[in-house]
Amino acid sequence: MGKAMTCQARPNPTPEQLVADLMLLLDLEQRGGDLFIGRRHPDGTGRVFGGQAIAQALGAARRTVPEDRVSHSLHAYFLRPGSDEHPIEFRVKRDLDGRSFSNRRVVASQQGEPILNLVASFHVPQQGLHHQAAVMPDVPPPESLKSDVEMRHAAAATMPDGVIKQLLLRPRPIDFRSVEPLDWIDPKVREPRAHCWFRTVAHLPDSRPVHQAILAYISDFQLLATALQPHGLSMLRGQVKSASIDHAMWFHDDFRADDWLLYATDSPWSGMSRGFGRGQIFARDGRLVASVAQEGMLRPVRAKG
Q: Is the model's pTM score more than 0.90?
């Protein structure tokens, strides 16, 4: 089963191939009833990226609800580290199918051990009251900013060969453009606030579930890193041991993940070896299209000596 459910790594992939591979990674194989199998990442870090597990679990839940219902929220707990060596099994429980809402529970497991629990809710779109208190931050447009690819390559040029350098140089299906300058190797102390534009590097199909799954995947980036900014510590330098604990997301409005979206994150608190992050995702026209919250483990690693 492992080989059959592995996405194949490509040498020198085009943007279209990178996005196609991401869509394949987030697609699932149905194994009868409400059991689904998620593919393995071909060149991962050894540990499953949390955004991948969330997006695949959301996709499994989505496959069991009527077509007229759209995802509007999810709440997940990370229980154990997932391994890139094994596919992930997703079992869905159909807790509710009401007139307007459907609710699903998903347990993601590897080798008989649960690694993620997720609850997702789906709603038949309806017109109703509307307001938006959140104002899109006034930041430079993405066209005026350097791609994070340039900064990652510059950082990698100063590093010896190894896993971290390979990660920095690996082609990615998402184009990130950070408003505040990033330094993965030697970060400076700054306030726990960050802004980043992002979009897929190639066009996506006109499918709301695809765009929502990819946004769920992307939403796990940056949140815990924002909580580290007041402390000037780097995960890449091994100064902090980190892991996501839980993740919540709300989809508010329509969007396209292949058009520029702004991820505005902040961290109002950290302590007791945990950090808390919040995120607001805006379309370029100023609409708040999603909100995110996450808590994670942040344990400083004491230098030996």
A: yes
